[in-house]
Amino acid sequence: MFNLTGKKAVVTGGSIGIGRGYATALAMAGADVAIVNRTEEIGKKTAEELQNKYGIRSFCIACDVTVPEQVEKMMSEAVERLGGLDISVNNAGIALLGADENVPPEDWRKVMDVNVSGMFYCCQAAGKVFIRQGRGGKIINTASMSARIMNCNASYNASKGAVVQLTRMLAAEWGRFNINVNCLSPSYILTPMHASSPLKLRERIRELTPLGYVERPEDLYGPLIFLASDASNYVTGTDLLVDGGHTLNSWLVPLKRELPPRVTPEEEVVQLKHDLDLLGIPYDENGINEELHPNMAEAFKAMFS
Ligand SMILES: NC(=O)c1ccc[n+]([C@@H]2O[C@H](COP(=O)([O-])OP(=O)(O)OC[C@H]3O[C@@H](n4cnc5c(N)ncnc54)[C@H](O)[C@@H]3O)[C@@H](O)[C@H]2O)c1
User: Fold this and answer.
1) What is the CATH number of the domain that holds 243?
2) Which ligand 1 atom is the nearest neighbour of the CA of 14?
3) Residue 1 — very low, low, confident or very high, per pLDDT cuts 50/70/90?
4) pLDDT in tens, 186-197
5) Pocket test for ligand 1, best of 16, 18, 20 (most atoms within 8 A of CB)
6) Which domain holds residue 57?
7) Which of 101, 129, 244, 285 is most buried as measured by Cβ atoms within 10 A of its Cβ?
8) What letter would DSSP give residue 39?
């Protein structure tokens, strides 16, 4: 039921971070995976790694998801090289920090372009393939807990709210083609997006998260395989929240832990360090490089000082 042997999948933003986690989960379950990234270099390395480790077929296609013509071309190439399409994971996304009263219109547009328009172009391109093939398909979009709580800024949170509604609309519309459309909503995950955030932030997240550790790409393997496989055939239009209970938490004082969390601080950063190695970015023993996202480093420093 959870086996994906012989299935053909596309993952956008699949070379590092959460997308690499999704690509790994699909490969572990037996699927062939096309990794889509703005540039080919890092995606190629991830594809080689997946091929060698899991014996599936994987390759990278360069594409900017904000350009509809590139998305159409990428999808045609993926379908041709994979020999069809069963699973489309639309994950490429960005966050630009900044207080909303000062956010310049070009930053707002950039976030909406990638997170909403790019997401729609990819859903549309995959939907057309599934409709043409006539055997249904699975679309999985990365939203975020930011679709339900307020934690970043207006452009990011609004864009993720839009992803959830986009997903629900397409699920309602395309069920008639046996296409399932769902989204996955992680909480804070240690990916290169977070490589400049300080240790204090991790401590705070652990305190506020009932399951007691900072989420990793590995924590999405099971939920992704569920949504990509026959196990979820009657699930559509859902936003599957995978947050360790973070968004439930409204205790005034964090509850005392009775058992140590399942994951240690060292284990939290294994994949982050792997991603930074792939990117050739140096980091300290905690996987931190403040220069990668200086605005983020500054913002968190101010928050915790
Ligand atoms: N890291 C988190 O805490 C977190 C939490 C919830 C949701 N998310 C979401 O998960 C997704 C992945 O985030 P991540 O943390 O792995 O980020 P990341 O920055 O580590 O990786 C993002 C990937 O998307 C690709 N990408 C960005 N813009 C693109 C474009 N225009 N065209 C093609 N590819 C593009 C990047 O090259 C990269 O491979 C995003 O949608 C993000 O909003 C992240």
Assistant:
1) 3.40.50.720
2) 39
3) very high
4) 999 999 988 999
5) 18
6) 8-304
7) 244
8) S
